[in-house]
Write a structure and sequence with these properties.
The chain is α+β, with helices and mostly antiparallel strands. The chain has one domain (43-319). Helix content is 20%, strand content 29%. The chain contains 2 helices and 14 strands, in the order ααββββββββββββββ. The chain has helices at 2-11, 16-69; strands spanning 83-84, 115-118, 138-144, 157-160, 165-168, 183-195, 206-215, 218-228, 230-240, 249-251, 270-281, 294-295, 303-304, 311-319. The strands form 3 sheets. Strands 1, 2, 3, 4, 5, 6, 7 and 8 form an 8-stranded mixed β-sheet that branches. A 4-stranded antiparallel β-sheet has the order 10-9-11-14, covered by helices on one side. It is elongated and about 110 Å long. 35% of the residues are buried.
């Protein structure tokens, strides 16, 4: 009996060596698990940051593209020169329409220039909010709503047929048009630019848009924020100068070649495509991020910024579906 009890007593528990070995193995497993977790967490944070920047770039580009693609759409016609009430050389408002002039005479009615812009600047009298981003382009798109709309007094609208049109704002179909042979469309005018600060996220540059609207029964202009994080906008226009429906050259906004009022205008020249570049950054800096890329959107060189923010540059060429004069 005593021998059996002593044998069972000696077999119970672990030796010190066995305990130390177990602790060592357990420690290695825990350290490995923690490292795997940290690496997975860091990968998740990086992927989330990349996704947010990509999402901002995609949203901004989609917004711009939807507007640009339909430039020169005037309802049933794409012939701006056949529309009465548009700005003409020397007279930005020949019919005396109640155009909001906050952004300058002819800003809304110069529909013969369905797209135009300023290279590396902003020159509208309706100021940027709060200030324009240096070395960033601004551009304006003019068009009509795709679908017909109801008559609305105080809003700039177009009445168009296949061969002619008229701009009006009194809510009455202008003579000689009739609802049976024409359609009513709202005039849409938008100016895109980059502001150096966002009211929503202070310290962050942002893409903004000035839009023709109505306030108190008269034409007005709204300025709305579209995409915080857009740091630079560049645009170039593809111009057809020999009327063969192909791009002959790309020019910066404000170039004389497509402007009928400029000395360097080439008769018949028209913009048929637009090439867009966007530089987008994250909303907050990231620890340890290194970016040695030299950002060169369009005709500007922003250099190597490397300030702790994640960035990406995207570009796209957009066909203006209704480009004709």
């Amino acid at each position: 009996m005593n021998m059996t009890s002593n044998s069972q007593k000696y077999q119970a528990g672990l030796t010190m060596v066995e305990l130390l070995v177990a602790l060592a193995i357990g420690s290695f497993l825990i350290i490995g698990a923690v490292q795997i977790y940290n690496q997975s967490r860091q990968a998740f944070v990086v992927n989330e940051s990349i996704a947010r920047v990509q999402e901002t770039a995609q949203f901004a580009m989609d917004t711009i593209e939807a507007d640009l693609r339909m430039a020169s759409n005037w309802g049933r016609t794409s012939r701006a020169l056949a529309i009465e009430g548009r700005s003409v050389i020397g007279d930005p408002n020949p019919l005396g329409l109640p155009e909001s002039n906050k952004c300058g005479d002819g800003w809304a009615l110069n529909i013969a220039m369905s797209v135009d812009g300023v290279n590396n600047g902003y020159n509208l009298p309706c100021g940027a909010q709060p200030a324009p981003q240096p070395n960033s382009d601004s551009f304006t798109v003019r068009r009509a709503t795709v679908n017909p709309v109801a008559l609305e007094a105080g809003r700039l609208q177009l009445q168009t047929t296949r061969i002619q049109g008229a701009i009006f704002a009194d809510g009455n179909v202008p003579a000689p048009f009739t609802p049976a042979d024409s359609t009513t469309h709202n005039l849409l005018v938008s100016t895109y630019y980059v502001a150096d600060d966002s009211p929503l996220i202070p310290g962050t540059p942002t893409l903004r848009r000035k839009t023709l609207t109505v306030t108190g029964g008269v034409p007005d202009i709204d300025d709305i924020e579209i995409a915080p994080g857009v740091e630079s906008l560049q645009i170039q226009f593809g111009v057809d100068v020999n009327e063969d429906n192909t791009v002959d050259r790309y020019v910066n906004p404000g170039n004389d070649v497509y402007d009928p009022t400029a000395a360097g205008y080439i008769p018949g020249a028209r913009i048929i495509t637009a090439r867009i570049w966007l530089v987008v950054r994250g909303l907050t800096p990231e620890v340890g991020i290194v970016d040695n890329r030299d950002y060169e959107p369009g005709d500007v060189d922003l250099g190597v910024i490397n300030d702790g923010y994640r960035r990406m540059q995207v570009s796209k060429t957009i066909l203006l579906r209704n480009a004709r004069t």
